[in-house]
Amino acid sequence: MAKWFSSGFLHLLLVVAVLLLLVPSSEGKGSSSINATDTLRASRPLSGDRRLISRRGKFALGFFQPQAQGSTGKWYVGIWYNKISVQTVVWVANREKPISDPASSSFTISDDGNIILLHSKSIVWSSNSTKAAFGSTVAVLLDTGNLVVRHKSNTSNVLWQSFDDITDTWLPGNKLSLNKVTGVSNRMVSWKNHGDPAPGMFTVEMDPDGSNQYILLWNSSQVYWASGNWTGTSFPNMPELSPANTYPNTPYTYGFVNNSQEIYFTYNVTDDRVLSRNVISVSGQSQSSVWVETAQAWVIYFSQPKANCDVYGLCGAYSKCSGSGLSSSCSCLKGFSESDPNSWNLGDQTAGCRRNVPLQCSRKDLVKGKQDRFYTITSVKLPHKAQSIQATSIQNCQTACLDNCSCSAYSYNGTCSLWYAELLNLQDTVDGSVDVIYIRVAASELPDSRTKKWWIFGIIIGGLAILGSGVITLYFLCRKRQINGIHLAEGSVITFKYSDLQFLTKNFSEILGAGAFGSVFKGVLPDTTTMAVKKLEGLRQGEKQFRAEVSTIGTIHHINLIRLLGFCSEGTKRLLVYEYMPNGSLDYHLFGGSSLSLSWNTRYQIATGVARGLTYLHEECRDCIIHCDIKPQNILLDASLIPKVADFGMAKLLGRDFSRVLTSMRGTIGYLAPEWISGEAITTKADVFSYGMMLFEIISGKRNTLHGGTSADKFFPLVVARELAEGGVHKLLDSEVIIDVHLGELERICKVACWCVQDSENSRPTMGEIVQILEGLVDVEMPPTPRYLQVLAEGVKSSQVSSLG
Fold it and tell me: Mean pLDDT of all residues in the chain?
C-alpha cells in the first residue's frame, strides 16, 4: 500500500478539495432545537433523555451510551455533534465512572455553583471549580462545543469550561496549553477503547519541559512523536502548516503563544459550515478530520505518526504489529494469547498478550529436561530496550538468555542483544530488513525432536519403519493424485482446500511480499504453473476486500488484468490465488530501488497497457467496474514487463443502466479525484484521475510529492503543465530514459496526464479515448492547466499566511 499523507501538498489538497467541493452543510438535520434549551439551571436538571441543545443546534449534551459493542449498561454524560448521523462524542464528564440508569440520575448545578452528576443521590462527578459562586451560576452549551459555567448576572465571567477539561477531542477554538504558573496541562487523553471513554494509554500535550512543541506520549512517560519547536510559522514535523505548502483562502488558522503565563497552540475554522476536529485515537494517532455530509463519514486529512505501527506500545507486550500507514493489525506471538480479548475486539490492544505456558527455567525443570526453547521470527523491526552483552557466537547468546529466567528473547548479528521481561514494539517490515529475533517459550509450546526416552522410541521407530514408509508412500501417492486433479480451466475459478494450498506452497515457506491485508506466498501447481497465494490476515481487516476481489476479478479476463486462479474460504482461513508476476509491482521499479531500469519505450507500453485494462473494466465487461485504487503499487509486471492491473479489494460494480454510483470514500490519498472528497456520486472518471496522477510518476520515475523544504515550482505535475505550455517537454526526463525517448510520445502522454486530472470529470477523457490517443490514432489538444495546480502556484506566490502567529 502507498503511504498516506506523503507530503504537505497532498494533505492540503485533501483539505481544499473538501472545502471547495463540500455539499450543502448539515444544518437543519438531526435533532430539532425547537423548544430545547442551551442553559442548565439548578431548578431544571437533566435526567433521562433530556438534553441541552446549543443555540444553532450544532451540539447536544446529555446522557449517552457508546455505540461500540460491549458497552451495554454503561451511561455517561457527554457532548456530541447534534446534526450528523454518526455518534461523535467530543467531551465526557464521568469518563471513569459510568452510571447504570440515567432515569435515576441528574446532571445539575449544585448549591456551591459547580456542575455535578448525581446517581442515587451520590455525587459521581463534579466540575470542582474553586471559582464557583453559591446559588448564582448557570451552565450554557455553546455552538463551539464548549460548556461554560457563568454568573447569572455577568455572562462574560467564565467560572469553569469544558474546554479546560479536554477528554480525547480538540475542537476549533480550544487550545493545548501548559500553565507556567501552576504547571497544569490542558491535554488530550485517548479513550480506553471504542466502547469505554475511560482514560487510555495515549496522551497529547504541550512539552512539559518548556520547549515550543507538543508531544504524543504512551503511558504518560514515553514520547513517540514530537512536532518539533515552533519556527514562527510552523512546526518542523508538520510541514503542512508552512506558508509554502498552505493554500490561500483555506478556512484553517493556527496560533502559537509563549508568554510569561502560559504556552499554547490553537487552531480555528473560519467557515462555520465546516465540521472539524482533532482526536487522539484509541490506536494512539493524533488524527484531524472533517465531516463529509454526502459520504456520511469523517474523513481523516492528517495524522501523526503516519504509520500506526510507529505508535509506542500500540500492540502491547508479546504482540507483533503488521501492515503500513493507517492499515495495521496486532497479533500475539506464538505461545501467547490475548490478555483481554474483549478490549482487543474494541480496538485496544495495549494490554498485549500473555504466555500460554509459564517458562520452565528453574534448575528443577532443567534436571527434568524441560529447558525452554526458542522460535524464530524474521524480517522484523526489533523491539525497544534491548541490552547488549559480549558473546562470540549465536550459541553463546542463546545460552546467556537461557541462564536468566527474566530473558524473553535474543537476537544476534555479531552483537548479542537480550530482552528482559516484556517485549514491546515488535514490527513486521517490508523494506528488506534482515533482522531476526528468537522468542523464548516453554518447551511444550514447540515440537521437540529430543526426549530422554530416545532408546524406547528408537525401538518403536525401527519396528514401524517398514510400515511407516508404506503408509507415507501410499499417502503421497493419494495426495499427488488428488493434487494432480487440480487443473486450470479457461474461464473458471478453482475452490482450493486450505490443506491443498499448504501443500502447493510448501507450507507457505517462500514469501513474495506483504501488505496491509496479509502476505503473498509463492506456490506451484502440478502442471508447473507458478502462482501467487495471498493469505488474508485479520478478519476485520480483510473480509470485505476478499469478497470484492473474488466476485469482481473472478469473472473477467484480459491480458492487462491480473487473473484470479482460485480462492479458499474455510472459516477464518481466506486466501486468493493469482497468476504469478515475476517482476513484481511497478512502484518497485519506478522508485523502489530495483536494479532494472525502465526504458522510455517500456514506460510508454506500460502506460498504454494499463489504459487498455481499464478500458476493458469500464466499457467491455457485463457490468462496468470502477477499480477505485489505481496507483503504481497495484500495477504488476509479468516476465515480459506487460502490465496487469491488480488488487480489486476496493472495486465498485456499476450496472450498465447507471452512469454513476454513490459510495463511501475509498482509494489512496494522492491519487483521489476531487469528487471522492466531496462525497459526490462516482463515475469511471475517478479512475481516469488516478491514472493521470500515476502517469506523472511513470514519466518522472519519482513520486508526486512536495516536501516542506521543496519549492512548489518543482512539483512534477506543475512542471509538466508549465513545460507543455512553453514547449519544453524534452526537459522533463532524467538521463536514464532520455536516450530512447520519442519526443512525440512524450508530449502526447504529458497532454493525456494533464487532461486526466482536470477538476471537472466532464473535461476528462474516457479510458477508451486515452488508448486511442496513446496509440497515435487520435490527436489531442493542448489541455488547460488543472485548477488545483493554479491554486498551488498562487499559494506559492503569496507566501505570507497572515493567520499564522
Answer: 80
Distance of CA 651 to the CA centre of its chain: 19
Do both 228 and 160 map to the same domain?
Answer: no
Confirm or deny that 535 is annotated as ligand binding: yes
Domain-terminating residue out of 445, 466, 481: 445
The type of residue at 746 is L
CA dihedral 474, 480, 483, 488 (to 10 degrees): -150
Enumerate the H helices of 123-179 as residue ranges: none
Residue 587 CB neighbours (<10 A): 18
∠ CA(699), CA(703), CA(707), 5° rounding? 135
pLDDT < 50 positions in the chain: 1-34, 244-248, 363-364, 366-368, 449-456, 459, 472-478, 480-491, 539-541, 707-710, 793, 795-805
pLDDT digits (tens, 9 = 90+) for 172-223: 999 999 999 999 999 999 999 999 999 999 999 999 988 999 999 999 989 9
How is 621-652 classified by DSSP, letter by letter?
SSSEEE----SGGGEEE-TT--EEE---TT-E
CATH value at residue 155: 2.90.10.10
Q: Is residue 475 part of a domain?
A: no
Residue 63 lies in a domain: yes
- pLDDT tens-digit map of 578-608: 889 989 899 889 887 777 888 888 999 999 9
Three cell numbers at 677? 472528497
Which of 309, 340, 365 terminates a domain? The answer is 309
DSSP code per residue over 388-431: EE--SSHHHHHHHHHT-TTEEEEEESSSEEEEES----EEE--S
Q: What does the angle CA 568 – CA 427 – CA 574 come to, to the nearest 5 degrees? A: 5
Predicted TM-score (pTM) of this structure: 0.59
Residue 612: give its domain's CATH number: 1.10.510.10
Element (H, E) at 577: strand 573-579
Task: Tell me: do 80 and 91 sit in the same domain.
Answer: yes
Shared domain check, 93 and 78: yes
pLDDT at 467: 56
C-alpha–C-alpha distance, residues 108 and 121, integer Å:
12
**71 and 156, same domain (yes or no):** yes
Residue 765 neighbours by CB distance under 10 Å: 20
Same domain, 612 and 750: yes
**Same domain for 746 and 616:** yes
Number of domains in the chain: 4
The question of whether 629 is a catalytic residue gets the answer yes
Segments forming the whole domain that contains residue 346: 319-445
* 762 and 679 belong to one structural domain: yes
List 38, 310, 348, 629, catalytic entry: 629
Q: Which residues pair with 252 in a beta bridge?
A: 269
Grid coordinates representing 318?
Answer: 508479546
Residue 346's CATH number = 3.50.4.10
